[in-house]
Specification:
Number of strands: 11
Number of domains: 2
Largest sheet: 4 strands, mixed
CATH superfamily of the largest domain: Immunoglobulins
Distance between the termini: 75 Å
CATH topology of the largest domain: Immunoglobulin-like
CATH class of the largest domain: Mainly Beta
CATH architecture of the largest domain: Sandwich
Oligomer: single chain
């Protein structure tokens, strides 16, 4: 009976520790730009170390992201116009930060890797919707207010009080 209790307690102890031993995964993402800070579409980004080889391709906005990668050190290369350029070496770990973006700047035959906290995906989206009509609904109890922005970004309001039928 004593041996059975020890085994059960050991199993419970190991189950509690399993999240500590779990392998975390990280995504490498960012923006590829040229020397004039213009996005480069179709750039191939290769990320590798001794056990992992991954690649990503930048979209029309120069944005790229990898699959999930295990923690560790990686070499990052970018291929632009058939030319292979070494961008740099990175180390992905819990201490490297959850919201980091790895932007690559290509100037001539050189590439540099810049780590940033600024989200290039949000910036690209906001640039696309800038100048388009948009509307925002605000619900507050029985009242609804709609803020609409036209192409000139001038606000136009419409509100409705549902309780008195207006």
């Amino acid at each position: 009976m004593k041996t059975g209790c020890k085994i059960i307690l050991t199993i419970i102890f190991l189950m509690l520790l399993s999240p500590v031993w779990a392998q975390r995964s990280y995504m490498l993402s960012g923006l590829v730009v040229d020397g004039d800070n213009k996005p480069i579409s179709g750039a191939m980004i290769k990320i590798n170390n001794l056990s992992v080889a991954e690649q990503a391709v930048s979209d029309q906005d120069g944005l790229y992201y990898s699959r999930l990668l295990p923690a560790g050190g990686y070499w990052v290369y970018v291929y632009v116009g058939g030319q292979r350029l070494k961008a740099g070496r990175i180390f992905l770990s819990a201490s490297s930060g959850a919201e980091r973006y790895y932007n690559i700047k290509v100037a001539g035959d050189k590439a540099s890797l810049m780590i940033s906290d600024h989200d290039p995906f949000a910036t690209a989206y906001l640039q696309k919707v800038k100048g388009r009509p948009m509307s925002f609904d605000v619900l507050d109890g029985p009242n609804t207010a709609v803020l609409m922005l036209d192409a000139s970004q001038q606000p136009k309001y419409r509100s409705t009080n549902w309780s008195d039928g207006k």
